[in-house]
From TrEMBL:
Keywords from the UniProt entry: Cell membrane, Membrane, Transmembrane, Transmembrane helix
Main location: membrane
Transport found in the keyword field: no
Subcellular localization(s) per the UniProt record: Cell membrane; Membrane
UniProt xrefs under Pfam families: TauE
Family: Belongs to the 4-toluene sulfonate uptake permease (TSUP) (TC 2.A.102) family.
Name of this protein: Probable membrane transporter protein
Topology in membrane: Multi-pass membrane protein
Transmembrane segments: 12-42, 48-66, 78-97, 103-125, 146-167, 173-190, 227-246, 253-271
GO cellular component, one term: plasma membrane
Keyword Transmembrane helix set for record: yes
InterPro entries reported in the protein's UniProt record: TM_pro_TauE-like (IPR002781), TSUP/Inactive_protease-like (IPR051598)
């Protein structure tokens, strides 16, 4: 480990823009790539890259979470049960330390996303799938049934709590890629209606990712907040540009423009409150020292 001064923030802005470009190319898989990009391009260790990636992902899905909440497809009771499982999952994850292994699920996701773009394949099993029927049968036999009025089904309260624990455990260790788990589990294992599953999982992922980031004292470190804002500024500018020029808009243009304005103002305010502040971090020297001044790296 060595001390490296970042004289500028070009690299973080670039990574955010790259994440925004990957979004329409790879679908949702693109916005999960911030964690490996941070680790590869700046050498940040996993315990710093993961909470930054979590907060970045939470910020990006704010419009989607608000939209699903407004449409009224959110199952509040299911959401509450999942959130109850967050805390034990976080405590369990605290006992495990990962670094390079964080790359593995992102590498699998990247390969899968590329294959899907070339030759699409079924992402979820069909309703009459044999293994799905077995899974539903086993879950239906569990005790502690509670009726989810909004979803219109009975389910053991143990299951969504376990799902919440699994989400927080994987999120704490691997970052935003954990968000991929929730919606398929709700549809396949709990037989939640698709629209309700999508809405509930989106809002739950927003709350969860932000909570996991704050669990790491993320907002208590000005450096982390500054890196996050540069990343999000790059992503939101890219999303604004793409939403303005492509037919399939990522965000409504006014929403994307508002995100850029809010992020810019917040970043300006933060930097104004720390005049002359140079970003100092401890990180691995390779490969970030190859980026030169453009990456803001000064030995």
């Amino acid at each position: 480990m060595e001390h490296i001064f970042f004289s500028g923030s070009f690299i973080f802005l670039f990574i955010g823009m790259l994440g925004g470009i990957l979004y329409p190319v790879l679908g949702n898989a693109g916005i999960y790539m911030i964690v490996p990009l941070l680790m590869l391009l700046t050498g940040l260790p996993a315990d710093m890259a993961v909470p930054i990636g979590l907060a970045h992902f939470a910020a990006l899905i704010i419009p989607a979470a608000v939209g699903h909440w407004q449409t009224g497809n959110l199952d509040y009771k299911l959401l509450l049960l999942i959130m109850i499982g967050f805390i034990p999952g976080l405590f369990l994850a605290e006992r495990i330390q990962l670094n390079l292994y964080v790359f593995i699920p992102y590498l699998i996701l990247l390969v899968g996303a590329i294959i899907y773009k070339i030759r699409p394949f079924a992402l979820l099993p069909k309703p009459n799938n044999h293994f799905r029927k077995i899974t539903l049968r086993v879950i239906n036999q569990l005790p502690g049934k509670t009726f989810l009025t909004f979803s219109g089904i009975k389910v053991s309260f143990i299951v969504p709590i376990i799902v919440g624990g699994l989400l927080s455990f994987t999120g704490k260790l691997f970052g935003p890629i954990a968000a991929l788990l929730l919606c398929p589990i709700l549809i396949i294992c709990l037989d939640i209606p698709v629209m309700v599953a999508v809405a509930t999982s989106t809002v739950c992922n927003f709350i969860g990712m932000l909570s996991f980031a704050m669990w790491n004292d993320f907002l208590m470190i000005p450096l982390n907040l500054k890196i996050l804002l540069w990343l999000f500024l790059g992503s939101s500018i890219t999303v604004l540009v793409l939403s303005s020029v492509i037919k399939k808009k990522l965000y409504p243009v006014p929403v994307a423009a508002l995100l850029v304005l809010i992020t810019s103002f917040t970043l300006w305010t933060l930097m104004l409150g720390q005049p002359g502040h140079q970003v100092l971090i401890q990180q691995f020297s390779f490969p970030s020292n190859l980026l030169g001044w453009f990456g803001g790296v000064q030995g």
